[in-house]
Structure prediction request, 93 residues.
Amino acid sequence: MAAAALICGILGIVGSFIPVVQYFTTVLAILGIIFGIVARKKAKATNTGTGLATAGLVLGIIGTIFALAGIICAVACAGAIGSLASEAAMGML
Prediction:
């Protein structure tokens, strides 16, 4: 579980910087958070190291934040372009 959290967190961060892919890797980043939490609970129950699970959890959180910020920027840009296109169309009539 800890390795899955780490891989999902890394893919979430890397994918959050690619415009079209960020919508899909947001899900991976969220899964990284979930896997990280589960792996930390299992590691504490068995008294083993929690380092890999913690790294996956942190990377999942960072990937989710980056991806959500990118999605918000994309929506804001689309709204601004739509507003400008609407004003340009009204001015030409």
Q: What stands out?
A: The chain has three helices and no strands.
